[in-house]
Amino acid sequence: MIRWKRLFPLFLGAACSVFLAGCHGSRETEAFQPPETFDETKTYEITFWAKNDTNKRQTDIYKKAIEDFQALYPNITVNLRLYTDYGKIYNDVITNISTGTTPNVCITYPDHIATYLTGDNVVVPLDALSEDPEFGLGGSRLKFDGPGKEDLIPEFLKECTVNGRTYAMPFMRSTEACYINKTYVEKLGYTLPETLTWDFIWEVSEAAAKKDENGVYKINGQKVMIPFIYKSTDNMMIQMLRQKGAGYSTPSGEIQLFNDTTRELLSSIAGHAGTGAFSTFKISSYPANFLNAGQCVFAIDSTAGATWMGAGAPLSDIAEDARVDFETEIMPIPQFDPEHPQMISQGPSVCIFNKEDPGEVMASWLFTQYLLTNQVQTAYARTEGYVPVTSMAQDSAEYQDYLSRAGEDDDDFYKIKIQASMLLLSNTGNTFVTPVFNGSASLRDAAGQLIESVTKSVRRKETVDDAYMDHLFDDVASLYHLDEVKAQTSGKTDLGPLPWTARVLVGGLILSWVLILLWAFRDILKKRTQNH
Amino acid sequence: MKKITVTAIALSMAMAMTGCSGNSTETTAASEAETTAAETSAAETSAAETSAAETSAAEAGEVSVMTYEEYMAAELDSKVVIEASVQAKQSWWEDKATVYAQDEDGAYFLYNMACSEEDYEKLVPGATIQVTGYKTEWSGEVEIIDATFEFVDGEFIAEPFDATELLGKDELIDHQNQLATFKGLTVEPAGKDADGNDVAFLYNWDGSGSEGDDLYFNVSYNGQTYSFVVESYLCDASSDVYAAVKALEIGQTIDAEGFLYWYEGVNPHITSVTVAE
């Protein structure tokens, strides 16, 4: 089986050009005004662009949710379009903003919404809709038992706020976790600490990178071993900087990524990549493939990928005979300060795109709320190491029963998957998100690119020193147009010379006012002369 | 005085209206032109910078054009220079092209090679290019990344090599990325539909996709079953092979042709399927 093929490149140019230019050319729509009521005699057809983790259970849940929703609201038809890649949704939305053909409801990341918002009235703010006593969250006229605003986990809802307004509803949440071959850790003479630290991971990884005289790794007797592999290096850099209290960006979009702490972190990472103790998904492959083959000790990936991780993982891309048996442990990501753990919060949110017909937007809003009902939330959360975004669903008997059955089988109750969800549930207060602004998606990519670049460079036996870092920072800032993000938020932009019509206009205005003043002056002089 | 003032103000307003109108058109045009320029510039900058960085790295150690044998012998993460002819193009995004190339001795997978859109159009089957990049391996697929290229003289279209008897054998990897043909395969169930019926293909490996996504189908030969894929970046939903696979029926005998891509084992990217008479 193949989980994902390698995704499209990061749509770098498209993303950058969009955040620089904004969504210019987008067809303007009037700001959404909630209608007084929802007309159920009128039919609506809405589209829902949904992201799944290439997981049929997830797509089946989307389909069932649509079916159940349409049964409640026969006047609304929901057309589903499936994606497996946030980047592709982002790219397609941007393309469709300019033609006025955005979907109605769309799975998204807040970083992406910030770009969408550069178009006028493109995304519907949800604050007023949420408060509506009849059709808002927990509204009296909803045909389903939806959550009230107080039922949404505050941290998750807050992540959907851009410029002080709520532009999305959280749908699912995950974080990153470290999936560990505990058998190897102990074989190397170590004991897992209560809280993983970066020092511990690097030390064990270096020990696991030792080979014998035949080039075979001592720890696993194989020719392949990547002791520590990281799936999302953007998250790696972001979380390291956060834990160090170092800069990344300000809420207003000032770029702080290129700092001395970043240099230190990159130097450390380069050192471990040079010994073969560390690699990344982009350079090597999916962490799960190495972990499950006994070719890795520490694999950091999303909790939303937990069904692929570990000796008993129900899903795997590698041949059955390549899998090895070992004791799998899952822990929060390593920390610099174990007393104050910090980890990223991530996962899909849902936004609604504005349309000319407010009724169509209302239909979208109703469907969005339906995605927050217990039946959808608990079902979807069970497909991976996700957690529901409402306390209603988290506290439901069904979900609590599910959590209590970890390890009953290696399928629905796969132990590591349920532990992944519990990891986030018990650390929700330790999660954070990065500031969202027009360009924040590119900054995230740049953060990951720094790690990818130094790792590649040391593997190619290039020198990674201060001069290299200077060059790398310049290259990455330029490649991702981060220098222009700063200019956009804090500086004046040179808009170039005025067009000729504008020059004629200004000239004409000046001439008119000069004539008026001259005439007035002449009048005054005339009166004075007459008075004398 | 009042009349004149009013006239002057009216004139100002009229000119302002005209000016605004004209300005609007001009601004829109200018804005679009600037946006286009900015985008082009961004793309060019990105390509140029990538190219410059790679060129700079490449300058660190000059390597002459390698034979296929030398390429295969080169260490992973080392700089390589090869000459080969394009056999197929998989994708182009933001000045990066992914290409299947081959010479008389073997094949190469060129992943995300720096390439302008204009040059991508010229990367037609048979076109010969000199590629400078780094040899790497991703999930078993040996490929060249962070590469630049230039067109050179020559033309070569590979004849598909019959890999049928190598299915399931270790030697198949020696032909990695080559255009290959498989004959006399039997279509096996790929999975089940919503009603529990066997189906001949799936969108994505588990049926989680939809029209336009990769198509997966299973074939058997000599009692062993193999998974083939129509890679949607290489052959999209409008391609003949996409339609042909969607029309497959379980039990049919087919011939298939494609590139011997690797992902944790052979994962042929099928470009042609013919149902035997």
Automatic annotation (TrEMBL), chain A:
Keyword Amino-acid biosynthesis in record: no
PROSITE patterns named among the record's database cross-references: PROKAR_LIPOPROTEIN
Keywords: Membrane, Signal, Transmembrane, Transmembrane helix
Transmembrane segments: 500-521
InterPro entries: Bact_solute-bd_prot1 (IPR050490), SBP (IPR006059)
Range of residues in the leader sequence: 1-21
PANTHER family recorded: ARABINOSE-BINDING PROTEIN-RELATED, DIACETYLCHITOBIOSE BINDING PROTEIN DASA
Protein name: Extracellular solute-binding protein
Lineage, opening ranks: Bacteria, Bacillati, Bacillota, Clostridia, Lachnospirales
TrEMBL record, chain B:
UniProt xrefs under PROSITE patterns: PROKAR_LIPOPROTEIN (PS51257)
Domain of life from the UniProt record: Bacteria
Keywords: Signal
Signal peptide as annotated in the record: 1-21
Keyword Signal: yes
Protein name in the entry: Lipoprotein
Lineage, top ranks: Bacteria, Bacillati, Bacillota, Clostridia, Lachnospirales
